[in-house]
Amino acid sequence: MLDESTFRREVDRALDSLKRSLIAAEEKGGFEAEENNGVLNILFEDRPGKFVLTPQTPVRQLWISAQSTSFKLEWDETKHAFLLPKTGEELKMLTQRLLRDHLADPSITLV
Fold first, then answer.
1. Could you tell me the end-to-end alpha-carbon distance of the chain, in angstroms, rounded to an integer?
2. Alpha carbon separation from 59 to 55, 75, 91, 94 (Å, rounded)
3. Cα–Cα distance between 62 and 12 in angstroms, integer?
4. Could you give the number of structural domains in the chain?
5. Is residue 47 part of a domain?
6. pLDDT tens, position by position, 42-88
7. What would the pLDDT profile of 87-109 be if each residue is shown by its tens digit?
8. In a domain, 110, yes or no
9. H-helix segments, 2-109
10. How many Cβ atoms sit within 10 Å of the Cβ of residue 54?
11. Beta carbons of 85 and 8 less than 8 angstroms apart
């Protein structure tokens, strides 16, 4: 398990990278990303709901609340990334899939 300072550094790096990708895709995607006190929210223009990405320091996980489901990503030292253990998806690819599903738009791409 990561120590707390390493976890905070890695989760901040991961969320910052994701936020930059979301901002680049916002205009065409019908959503908006905003950060508030270390929590990243994705708000939708024409559809109900929102996605909330929250670091969970005590358990060293990054949680995504989306589509009435909680996705708990864990740090993978080998890939140096947060992954969803069930599918092996990295944070950005999982978020892209969730956005595509929620907005019914397969063209959304997070780079």
1. 28
2. 9, 11, 17, 20
3. 10
4. 1
5. yes
6. 999 888 899 999 999 999 999 999 989 999 999 999 999 999 999 99
7. 999 999 999 999 999 999 999 99
8. no
9. 4-29, 91-103
10. 17
11. no
